[in-house]
Structures are given as structure tokens and as C-alpha cells.
Amino acid sequence: MIFRDVYEPAEDTFLFAENLSVNQGETVLDMGTGCGILAILAAENAGSVVAVDINPHAVICAKTNAARNGVAGKIRVHRGDLFESILPDEKFDIILFNPPYLPVEADEKDIWIENAWAGGRTGRKVINQFIDTASKYLAKSGRILFLQSSLSNVEETMKRFSKHNLHAKKICEKKLAFEKIVLIEAKRSQGRSCAALIASDCVPHEMELEPCMHFLTNAKAE
User: Fold this and answer.
1) Where are the alpha helices (DSSP H) in the chain?
2) Rg of the chain in Å (alpha carbons)
3) Longest dimension (CA), the chain
4) Which pLDDT does position 4 carry in this prediction?
5) What is the pTM of this model?
6) Rounded to an integer, what distance in angstroms lies between the CA atom of residue 126 and that of residue 102?
7) Beta strands 92-97; 48-53: pairing state
8) Torsion angle defined by CA atoms of residues 157, 163, 164 and 169, in that order, rounded to the nearest 10 degrees
9) What's the pLDDT at 28?
10) Which residues of the chain are under the pLDDT cut of 50?
């Protein structure tokens, strides 16, 4: 059921849904839930789901659809702007976001549904705000699934995730008429020890080797 002034699932939603995998018992945050379709799909395996949207019509719509699909007991729906309604100490195994990514000249939104696609002049207003905050709410071994358009600079998104110690990779993409939509997965970067790098012959040329050799020498002495 799609209420008036709520974004109707389209190609980007379906690409996301087709590639959504939730392990049994995981905690999920569905940011910008809209009609709640991703939250409902996630609830099948998730231990719990928090769904957030700035649009009050979307909040009511998502609650209604959760009840109609028998998962209302697993999904908590909040109204809020990005993470403002999330408790400071809450952590999630998976954070989902299909953000407003289309570049628009006017920054003001005349109707609620425009929040679903209007991303400011570069399309990156909400994207940047999300990436700069998301890692605070991500569990240690958690992951972010994030979808955006080629119109809002996918490579800048990859770089911005990296600045927050999140390793991002493209999972899949789909070419549409005037753009390409891309699904990205971001996880916390996992460093490898000096010993492991040397043993695997994967030491980068620019890496300082002296600390690694010192580590190995001390280990042998013991």
C-alpha cells in the first residue's frame, strides 16, 4: 500500500531489494524507509528493525504496511531527520539507505514526497550528512548498504566512506535512461598485521618495513 505523498518503489528500490541479504537475528536500520518495503523484507530474518523517515506520511504508511505483512512486532518506525531520532548508543549490524540523490536547483521542498529524491544542487546534501555520521551507529562488524545515482558522483561517495575508515565497494549497478544506479556496501576497514602482510608477500612498496622487521626479530628472540 502506497499513501499519497510517499515515494512509490521504483527501479532503485527493486535493485536494492533484489540484493538485500540479512542474517538471522541481525539488527537493521532502514534509513528513509518510505513505504517500508526494505524494512519489511529485512524483518524476515532480522532480530529487530528500526525504520526512519522525515516524511510523516511515510511513517504512517510504513507502520500500516508492517502490520499488513505481519511484522509490526519486529519493526519500530520513527519520524526523524537522518539519525536525530536514534539513541546515541544504538548500534546496528546493517544500515540501509536509498537517499535523495538527484541534483535539484531549488533547495526548498514544497511537498513531502520531494524529500525522497531532492538532493540539493549537487545531489550530495543528504548523502554527505549520512556518510559523515553513519559509522557512529554501525556495529563493529556491521555493514552499510547504500544506493545512489551516477548523477551525484559515486566516486566521491567511495572516497568519503574511506575518510571515515569504511571500505566501500560496488555490489551491483543498473543503467537507466539518463543515469546509472549503483548499490554500494561499506564496512569498517580491517588492518592487517605486519607479519601477515610479509607472510603473504602483500607488503605495499610505500609501506615502512623497519617496524615490521623489528616485530619479527623480537618474536624470534622470544
Assistant:
1) 11-18, 37-43, 56-68, 125-134, 154-163, 194-199, 210-221
2) 20
3) 72
4) 85
5) 0.81
6) 10
7) unpaired
8) 50
9) 98
10) 117, 192-222
